[in-house]
Amino acid sequence: MRFLHTADWQLGMTRHFLEGEAQPRYSAARREAVSSLGPLAGGCGAEFVVVAGDVFEHNQLAPKVVSQSLEAMRGIGVPVYLLPGNHDPLDASSVYTSALFTAECPDNVTVLDRAGVWEVRPGVELVVAPWRSKSPTTDLVAEVLAGLPADGTTRIIVAHGGVDILDPDPTRVSLIRMAPLAEALERGAVHYVALGDKHSRTCVGDSGRIWYSGSPEVTNYDHVEADPGHVLVVDIDEEHPAHPVSVEARHVGRWRFLTLHRPVNDSRDIADLDVNLDLMADKDRTVVQLGLTGTLTVTDRAALDACLDKYARLFAYLGTWERHTDIAVMPADGEFDDLGIGGFAATALEELVATARGGDGEDAQNAQGALGLLLRLAGGNAA
Fold first, then answer.
1. Mean pLDDT taken over the chain
2. Helices 362-377 and 298-312: crossing angle, nearest 10°?
3. Which residue, among 120, 118, 121, has the nearest Cα to 129 in the 3D structure?
4. Which residue has the higher pLDDT, 341 or 312?
5. Is residue 126 a contact partner of residue 120, using CB atoms and an 8 Å limit?
6. Range in 24-33, 58-67, 356-365 the model is least confident about
7. Which segments constitute the Calcineurin-like phosphoesterase domain (predicted)?
8. End-to-end CA gap in the chain
9. What is the pTM of this model?
10. What is the DSSP pairing of strand 210-212 with strand 202-203?
11. What percent of the chain is modeled with pLDDT above 90?
């Protein structure tokens, strides 16, 4: 038996740094990742799809987002089982109970809105733990595991949330406890655990049967979200008494969110940064935040700004990561000699240079900006 495990679609997600037409393209890419499950399921012979929580970004969505999302799910073709998670819980405002959702929900889509066992077909069951609020007060999975028999039925847990062995605060009452999961797997009451909430593909423990699929399209920078963009193809051998499992990741995501740390101390460093950015493919689907550190002359700072301005127009987003960017600007001796400025203007220029060298205060920063603008207006002809 083969099925697809996915999670954290978060349809309707917006990213604050995406401006203009980049945000609609990103939203479309998230829907396209869902649509891609149809050809994937057909090509590999998957019987159904389980979505382990956070199908939607939240419960208050524009009608267009709901309708387009349901149409993408319709196109998958095989049965699709949706688990409400922490972003879209089954609370009083649930998108799943809205008039629009219930009216347009395709026949192949089932909302797992009741905790417990759901039959997929004879001999195959889903054991599910939907969220009913954003802050559960108990381990929802442990509750549905209690009393499950080891009777040869193939069972898949579909759940959402953090696992205690991975969470930095294992005392949180809502965490999924590893011990009951391991015990149920060990005695053969369940055979695979499909998890959502962690956006990077992650195998939990050493059984090879507990997985986070990760989000099928990237949602955060790579220093936070190391391995997104996948859907898991899961095989369970129903004929073998031990129900062995194999898991294969298929990459479906098309966007990248990258964090780059670079030293910039001279024109060679700026040229190197320029080359690295230029060589990146698919700039219109790539988000880059830069952590830049170093000391530059005013001339080199102006060159860096010109470089960043150029690539900000080409990438879906490119900007500096303020907390990790620290560039000191120190005017070099004779840097402005070739501008041909004399008289009162030369005196004012000398004062600006002195202020720019004065330190990290607001006056120094303003002076550095003014000197950089002067160089750019002069065509960068200073030495």
1. 91
2. 80
3. 118
4. 312
5. yes
6. 356-365
7. 1-163
8. 70
9. 0.88
10. antiparallel
11. 78
Question: Which region, left, alpha or beta, applies to residue 334 given φ > 0 means left and ψ of -120 to 50 means alpha?
Answer: left
351-379 pLDDT tens trace: 666 766 665 667 766 766 666 666 665 55
Reading the block at residue 70, the tokens are: 């349901």
Stretch among 10-19, 118-127, 138-147, 163-172 having the lowest mean pLDDT: 163-172
**Domains, in order of start, for the chain:** 2-251 (3.60.21.10), 256-379 (no CATH)
Calculate mean pLDDT across residues 208-223: 97
Question: For residues 277 and 373, what is the distance between their CA atoms, to the nearest angstrom?
Answer: 24
Each residue's pLDDT tens digit, 324-355: 999 888 776 555 655 556 555 566 666 666 76
Torsion of CA 76, 77, 78, 79, to 10 degrees: 80
